[in-house]
Amino acid sequence: MAYHARYLHWAERARTESLRAIGLPHNLMIERHRALLVVRRVEVEYWRPARLDDWVVVETAILRVTGAQILLDQTVRAAEGAAGTPGERLAGLKVGLVCVGQDTLKPVPLPEPWRSVLKGLALPGTAKPAR
């Protein structure tokens, strides 16, 4: 079985790659604004274990963007060729991120264009902000 903390690693990698895919890599935020996104809160629910050497897919949905915070919903699914059924949910994560200053590690507003782009990608609805 895949170690339970591995899901956190997969989710982190998916968040990094998602930002890169929309042309707003995390390292650019650090270089230009001396700000970075850190995990403030994470909740994980496991439904079925991934097996060692299984391929997985991580789907990331933005639920809410406010001030310095982002609330995400991430689902880890079995990929084609995995031991389970392709697309089967393996785990779900609710992730609260906060933007902090690189030097102070205190919350700072999410810089542009990250804020407006991520807000534009947020799913419509009434998700509560990350606490």
TrEMBL record:
Keywords: Hydrolase. SUPFAM superfamilies: Thioesterase/thiol ester dehydrase-isomerase (SSF54637). InterPro entries: 4-hydroxybenzoyl-CoA_TE, HotDog_dom_sf, Thioestr_dom, YbgC/YbaW. Its EC number is 3.1.2.-. GO terms for molecular function: fatty acyl-CoA hydrolase activity. The lineage of its organism: Bacteria, Pseudomonadati, Pseudomonadota, Alphaproteobacteria, Acetobacterales. PANTHER family: 4-HYDROXYBENZOYL-COA THIOESTERASE FAMILY MEMBER, ACYL-COA THIOESTER HYDROLASE YBGC. This is YbgC/FadM family acyl-CoA thioesterase. Residues 2-82 form the Thioesterase domain. It comes from the Bacteria. CDD domains: 4HBT (cd00586). Pfam families: 4HBT. Belongs to the 4-hydroxybenzoyl-CoA thioesterase family.
